[in-house]
Amino acid sequence: MIYKRSGVWWTRFQINGVRYHLSIREAVNRRKAQKAEDRLKGELLAGRFEILDQRSDLTFKVLASRFMQWSKDNRRSWRSDQSRIKPLEEFFSERGLREISPILIEKFKNERRQSMRRGKKPRCASTVNRELALLRRIFNLAIQNKWLRVNPVSAVKFLPESRGRERYLTVEEERRLLAVCNLPDLAYLKPVVILALNTGMRKGELLNLTWDRVNLEAGEILVTQTKSGQDRTIPISPLVAGELAKLRDTADSEFIFANPLTGDRYSDLKSVFPRACRKAGISGVVFHTLRHTAASRMVASGMDLRTVQEILGHTEIATTQRYLHAMPERKTAAVQALARYTEEAMILEPESTDFDKQVAQEWPKLKVVAQA
Question: What is the number of helices (H) and of strands (E) in the chain?
Fold first, then answer.
């Protein structure tokens, strides 16, 4: 049965002895409400969206709160979850788990994609997809606790993402970036940039790095709290060792990159790194570009992929293979090498062959045919 109450369409029906009473807030008229009811019934009959009776009154707000507690206890990236969960809470808020269907999630996806971010720029498809991925994890927690049987996000197709242009720093851009890092307000960023470019470490790995993980005598760094959860050892060059030695002489914190006022690690570089890039006249880069630069340079120097994989901490070799792309300067060198062959052939000017003579004889005839 479809009916409207307080401006909201509702459906009430029974399947296999189970009664369902759900709101269809996305419906704007009876016809759309009926379509939503028909689709929901189909999903229930097909067993793709079964809802358990237990905790049927659980709201998304409560579930999100429980998820965040779990995330803080189990995930190093819980801060990312905390920032991405906000639009989910705003949209689904007090809705019960029974009410959150694939149709409603599709509505969230479309509205979120069409919304504008700060600076009045369109929201990226990748941002919406990361939020949908978080929503899927939240519902997975509900399934583990037997509040749902099937994840409604599984029926929602993610937005296509554009890979965009591969970006890395040129030597000239690196020179300009390091130059502006000599400015007093950016000086603390310089060793971070040097280590990122010469170790390929992720931003989080650098900011979490402590002195007990650095062995200058052995020339290596033990990287912990990694994305894969596996520790790895990275050898360091004399350049990196020299930077670390200078920092150690004035260190008063367990963290290598620490705020001198608090002694605690820098929480992020979201403001200072873009500011340094602007002053250096560099556009289209983020901090992760430094890791991409390091990887590209290692591969371009002829280093085998297995070694690069171990240094970067990739779980799969396929991830490392992304850096096999050719740099523009190498592409230029390649076509210049081709040109040298042609130039050499033109200089030799060999004697006319029988084929050349035949072409010369037939050319006027071919020209007449072509004009006709």
Answer: 15, 8
